[in-house]
Structure formats: structure tokens, C-alpha cells
Amino acid sequence: SVDRPGILAAVTKSISSAGINIDEARVSTTPDQKAVSTFDVWVKDVRTLNSVMKEIERIKGVISVERVRV
What we know:
alpha+beta; 2 strands; 33% helix; globular
């Protein structure tokens, strides 16, 4: 995402509003002023995850949302 005030709050609000718990969050800023945020979350089903990912994509300044499986 673009590194701007309030974007982290908007993303975490979307996650928590969906009833998803954030187990861990890692945020860093690149030299070109982009914020890279990684969240470890626990969801009850993939449908919920997909829904919140689409909601996050609609936040102004978010460039992309990806699911990383570990």
C-alpha cells in the first residue's frame, strides 16, 4: 500500500470487523514509501478470508492483497 496515515488502521478495522483475529502483524516501509503489511490470521472458512481480502483491496491506497500459505 501507499504509506499514508490511517491506512494500517483501515486494514486492521476491515479484518476485525469480519470477526477475524490477527495473530501476528509485521509492517515495514520500502525506500519508495510503500508499506508492506503481513498479517497472520485465523479464519473459520476460506469464504470469510476471501471476503475480507476483497474489502481490503477496496481501501484507498492499497496496491495488492495476497494470500500466503505456510
